[in-house]
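Batch manifest, entry 17 of 40.
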Amino acid sequence: MDDAPPYTIVYEYQASRFLDHLEVSQPKTFQRIEDEIHHLAFIKSSPKLKALTGKYKGLLRLRIGREYRAMLYFDHPSGKLYVVAIEHRKDVYRP
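Output type: structure tokens
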């Protein structure tokens, strides 16, 4: 790992709402998702990241276990990691 400071994590509304619900209903899953995102903010890459295409072009998908996906993007000039959505894998790509 390099010594650069981690990216600041910014949760957009949908992701924040999902995490708020998960924190109450499934605290272990909430913690696993938080840990994955914080780890990504520090190392800035992961084999679990995949660039999305089509209407989600420009976003990255982070696989969190077998069941959850996060859609996010890095804003390198501002040093921020924007988490757009977190959902169960069957729902994350639905409008």
